[in-house]
Amino acid sequence: YEANDIARAKALLAACDPRYRHWEWRYLSGLVDQSQWTFHLPTYPKAIAMRSDGPAAYALDRNGVLYRWAPGMKQPQARRLTPDKPDKVALDDSGSHAALTLPGSIVVINLDDNKRTTIKLDDGVTVNQLKLSPHGHRVAAALSDNHVVVWNTANGAVEQKQTATSLVKSLTVSEKLLAFLDQDGGHLWEAQATERRFPNPPGPVSTSPLLEWSSPLQTLMLATSSGDLQALTRTPTGVVQHVADLGYPISDVCADPSAQ
Question: Which residues contact 243 (CB under 8 A, 6 or more apart)?
């Protein structure tokens, strides 16, 4: 690498035993392979997304600042979405909508035209978990009163309201489905249908597991505290489970809503 022999650097990285491929290996791989994008933010990102209509990556930090990065840019563009620091933030998978929780409300922002929909919460109710559907048409929240509510982001109307039996650790929502994971297991609702249960994955689950819905594959993805990425796919005969050991903590996970 220091001799600028990129081909040799790639060969050495490829020859490295997978058991020893830790952060140093991934860092050098990103330097010699421009198909991997790497950019650094001044604060910790709380949500990420990929724009489906162009090669751009988005990250939303805990202060409500949105960063956009595309090939050819030396630094990401920064855009503050709110003057007040939000408690929770979310991006949809396509990078077209953002959601933020402020005292007494949830604000959904269309990132293309800056249109804002404000959803008022009952007095004293706070948001424990926040999630946007893949295309940003619905927003779901697990509330402190043990309700899990889904709103339409265009007009703020309530589309679904369910009651959790215990603390909701994670939730996800699609255009027709709502799923969440609480201490009693997994709960799944289809629009205008009764509840279905899906099995808890084996192995340790973190205090705040990551639950993501990949609509083309009919799959729920769950990241565990051990660095596993587990996929539960619904089939006509039951649920098929796949596990990938990433070997390091996962801060967020998203799925391309238009591809399989």
Answer: 201, 228, 229, 230, 231
- The single residue listed with the structure tokens 């990078």 is 95
Q: Is the pTM of this model over 0.85?
A: no
Using CB atoms within 10 Å of the CB of residue 217, give its burial: 0 to 12 exposed, 13 to 18 middle, 19+ buried.
middle
Q: What is the rounded CA–CA span in Å between residue 186 and residue 65?
A: 32
pLDDT band at 17 (very low <50, low <70, confident <90, very high): very high
Identify which of 155, 148, 77 has the alpha carbon closest to the alpha carbon of residue 115. 155
Q: Name residue, tokens 């339409």.
A: 152
Percent of the chain exceeding pLDDT 70 equals 66
**Nearest CA to 205 among 170, 167, 257, 241?**
170
Residues belonging to the chain: 260
116 CB-side CA count, 13 A: 9
* Residue written as token pair 């509510």: 149
Give pLDDT, residue 40.
75
